[in-house]
Amino acid sequence: MSTITNPSKPYTFTNGTVGEAPEVNSDFDIIYAKAMEIIAALNNIDAANITVGTLALARIPTGSGAGLDADKVDSFHASQTPGANQIPVTNAGSDLVLGGEIILPNNNAFQSKETGGTTRTVAYLSATNVVNLGDNNLATDILSSGATNLTHNNSLLWDAANDGSGSGLDADKLDGQEGAYYLPAGSYTASDVLTKVETVDGSGSGLDADKLDGQEGAYYLPAGSYTASDVLSKIQGVDGSGSGLDADMLDGQHAIDIYAKGYLSVLGQASIVMLDATTYFIGVAGWDVAEAQLPALRIMKSGSIKMARMGWKSTAAPSSESVSVYLRKNASTDTLIGTIGDVNTVKYFENVSLDIAVSAGDSINLKIVCPTWATNPGTVAFGGHIWIE
Predict the structure, then answer these.
(1) What is the pTM of this model?
(2) Measured between alpha carbons, how far is 324 from 349 in angstroms, rounded to an integer?
(3) What is the 3-state secondary structure (H, E, C) of the chain?
(4) Is residue 310 within 8 Å of residue 383, measured between CB atoms?
(5) Cα gap 260→359, rounded to integer Å
(6) How far apart are CA 368 and CA 354, in angstroms?
(7) Does residue 308 sit in the same domain as residue 334?
(8) Distance separating alpha carbons of residues 388 and 256, to the nearest angstrom
(9) Sheet with 131-133: strands ordered across
(10) 325 pLDDT more than 90
(11) Domain range spanning residue 119?
(12) What are the CA-CA distances from residue 282 to residues 9, 294, 339, 369 (Å)?
């Protein structure tokens, strides 16, 4: 670049002096020529033309539209500086310092490369204006300083590191259940447990208690041991004379049935001196030749006399004349039990084919008809039984 010299002024004008046109034009022409020289020099200026000295900053045109084309800006070439839609950055040691905001349109993600080189999403704003953090293929960990927990709208965010006892966390549910699902600890009392158990205990409940009415299980007899045979065995150990046992039945019969159905003694024993051609009547307490003098056997329940058996034992062997024994009902009706004629001192008068209807209150006696003996039998002991159904 050539050196531009200072112009010389041919005419000088003072106040009050009249300037001629040629003189004024001469000065203007010198100024115009020098200006054009300067413009030409500036249009041709570049680093190669600047060989000596420096340019004053005031002499360099700056700002929008100045047309200044520098080699570097802040020691950076154009390829090292951000474009119109880029964020200016600076290198502060190992840190990358952004000079503005990062603005991404919806569905455009801020991404980073993982250790293996695969590009992964760090964050993005969805089409429905929802901020999404992390990549579906990677775990996402949001970190904060140890002294400060993460917050959302000035409310604490909870995680496994700050929840638990004393944390103050008031959750909506616990293990998927509302609070009403759980029993307050204060309600879990012995009385409450007893009330609950009493609603489900009893037969078939399966409740296995340690004690029953204060007694261990060994105190009680197992239900399987309480059998008819076991009860019978126990009773047989204490029954008998003097036991005080008052049974309802005997051999399946009530007392009234036993008196009216079965073998009944009509005479414990009667000793009679048998006389010839004499009729004797035997009751429940002795004998007599006059029936009206004897207490008769009274029937206690209606039934039927099915059998009678009477025994005879004499002190002497009689002759073989026949002796007849009758069952006498109500002092009027005689039914033959048997007739025997032999010399034996022991005789049995028996009839097993009887069917004598009786009613409660009827009387029964025995009637013995003696013959005229050649040899008298002496004193005879007499007794017997009847069977009533």
Answers:
(1) 0.37
(2) 8
(3) CCCCCCCCCCCCCCCCCCCCHHHHHHHHHHHHHHHHHHHHHHHCCCCCCCCCCCCCHHHCCCCCCCCCCCCCECCECHHHCCCCCCCCEEEECCEEEECCCCCCCCCCEEEEECCCCCEEEEEEECCCCCEEECCCCCCCCCCCCCCCCCEECCEECCCCCCCCCCCCCCCCCECCECHHHCCCHHHCCHHHHHHHHHCCCCCCCCCCCCCECCECHHHCCCHHHCCHHHHHHHHHCCCCCCCCCCCCCECCECHHHHHHCEEEEEEEEEEEECCCCCEEEEECCEEECCHHHCCCEECCCCEEEEEEEEEEEECCCCCCCCEEEEEEECCCEEEEEEEECCCCCEEEEEECCCCEEECCCCEEEEEEECCCCCCCCCEEEEEEEEEEC
(4) yes
(5) 9
(6) 18
(7) yes
(8) 12
(9) 109-113, 119-125, 131-133
(10) yes
(11) 89-137
(12) 201, 7, 17, 11
Q: What percent of the chain has pLDDT over 90?
A: 19
Whats the size of the chain, residue-wise? Answer: 389
* Residue 133 belongs to a domain: yes
Mean pLDDT of the 368-374 span: 95
**Structure tokens that stand for 121 in this block:** 């999403």
Residue that is written with structure tokens 């009689």 in the block? 318
The tokens for 240 are: 């008998």
Domain shared by 368 and 269, yes or no: yes
Dihedral (CA of 32, 34, 36, 38) sign: negative
Specify the residue for token string 């952004």: 98
CATH code, domain carrying 280: 2.60.120
Contacting residues for 11 by C-beta, under 8 A, at least 6 apart? 19, 23, 24, 26, 27
Give the model's pLDDT for residue 368: 93
CA-to-CA distance for 368 and 283, rounded, in angstroms? 12
Among 46-55, 59-68, 110-119, the least confident range: 46-55
Six token digits for residue 32: 């115009």
Number of domains in the chain: 3
Mean pLDDT across the chain: 78
